[in-house]
Amino acid sequence: MSARVFVPADSSALSVGAEAVARAILDEARRRGFDIELVRTGSRGLFWLEPLIEVETAAGRIGYGPVAPGETAQLFEAGFLSGGAHPKALGRVDDIPYLARQQRLIFARCGVTDPLSIDDYRRHGGLKGLERALKLGPKATVEEVLASGLRGRGGAGFPAGIKWRTTAGINADQKYVVCNADEGDSGTFADRMLMEGDPFLLIEGMAIAAVTVGATKGYVYIRSEYPHAFAMFERAIERARAAGLIGPSVLGSGHAFDLEARLGAGAYICGEETSLLESLEGKRGQIRPKPPLPAIAGLFGKPTVMNNVLSFASTPWILEHGAKAYAAYGVGRSLGSQPFQLAGNVRHGGLIELAFGATLRDLIEGFGGGTRNGRPIRAVQVGGPLGAYFPEKLLDTPLDYEALAAAGGMLGHGGIVVFDDSVDMARQARFAFEFCAKESCGKCTPCRIGSVRGAETVDKIIAGLDREKNLELLRDLCEVMTDGSLCALGGLAPMPVLSALNHFSEDFAKSPARAAAE
Amino acid sequence: MSGRTAFDVDLARTLIDRKRATPGGTLPILHDLQEHFGYIDDRVIPLIAEALNISRAETLGVISFYHDFRRFPVDGRVLKLCRAESCQAMGCEDLVSHLERQHGIKVDDAGDDAELHVETVYCLGNCALSPSALLDGEPIGRLDRDRLDAIVADAQGKTQ
Fold it and tell me: What's this model's pTM, rounded to 2 decimal places?
């Protein structure tokens, strides 16, 4: 029997040499006359261990990592094909505490299976959610999603079931399902990992939505910064079509649903749902005022269910296990699991899927092991470039929608970026405006002009010009942008700024000479 | 990524025709054109406008809205360097100044004939291995000065 070896083809793993490792293993096996089957998987999300290779043994899957291409000969000598001892051996991968302590509902298969094998997907429990949705019918499926308490994982946290019910209740000649895979927030990579590591789960989730609301066509809008995810997802769509998971009759049910992947073009604003729709329609990605809501008049003016990758990917589990089982995870009105993404200056960055309610400290210290360079943590940005910066003393804030909002922040897409004590928070505040100015679609004045004026005002504060007056002006500007912007880009850009001002005011009060010296 | 085929109106027309019936096909068409020619030549504007029954102004408006679409050909390699928060926390701005100090390469400001174009990008989804970059579409994690020096040397050697 040939040994099965697993090497990730996830783009993070590729970024640290997984391709060369895969090639070296094949070469070495050939040279030594071993018959091996090399399976390319997604990533487990333990990125400091990448390239993390795994071998199937009687005792389970044994991991080795991080492996350099030059180490493969040693690994063969150590008998890694049967789990032999080696300095890079990690034991059973499922037992690594970072993984064992997680509650993986969405990411259960990611890094385990061959992402492009439908058989592998089925063997690991895939398609059961869709099968049950087909059996239940649209009404009961909507009820199930509503009862699960699933809220949009893109950032806004709007109940997914309400969107579905709205679109399902409208009579129209054409309806659409659109997946927002324009994962632009810094510090987030869960959508990318899922599309590269378990794309059929997203396809299954979208198919569930489609048969539930009566949509026959779906689009997945993937950002162009993710070329590997796009290529992988296109291949997954082809396979899904060939296997009858999508196409003229979804799993033989008679429901037609086809899917197309579309590539973005480097505009952060296209992660805003109405901009994304404009972009899909072939226009500039400028936002549309709401109402009408996309659920009523979305893509090409038709009723459209729009959700984030992780929202769709949550529904197969919900349908398979039931809303009650799902709602047993989490706290308060934040139910189910959330894939958190730990990044920045952190020792053990990666994907951590947990029920809502863990604290920032659990993640950063418990999972992340503190900063990578060992310096003290000074600030943690949660929820992407529009999220708040938290100081060390707020690290015991629980990660759920309400608790973060109460602390002046937001969960966003679940990204957590750690900064050490060398960070200059006035500079970070300036960057928030600069980013907003670059990425503003230009439709509304508070965002388009406010962001430019905001950066200038922070510059004046840093330079020590009329500091008190400019600080007051800055807060006033933040209020105008928050209240007056059409969408979340201009509306939330003040959040990182205000959190920096409120928690790190000393960084706005340095003498210009000192600021320049640092 | 950056194509190397010289611009050819007939090929452009073929590429446009292939997707003229695609609903909302402007971006797919522009991506195809850029993939083949490495940039969006102004000569395609009337062709797209006619094929999609939109104005030339609207066509240009779409092209200029998106950061990805280039209006002029680039030679040499393209390094997209992430400068978003996670990479900032791991020193991407040090890499930016290193490029300028050590190699005279300005980010987002290379000459048309530069061997290496370094461009700012905000997030490549490789944030657990920051600083991160894409070199002609290939991901690079834990980018540091040494690796950057090697990339510069390689790019300069390649086109010499």
Answer: 0.96
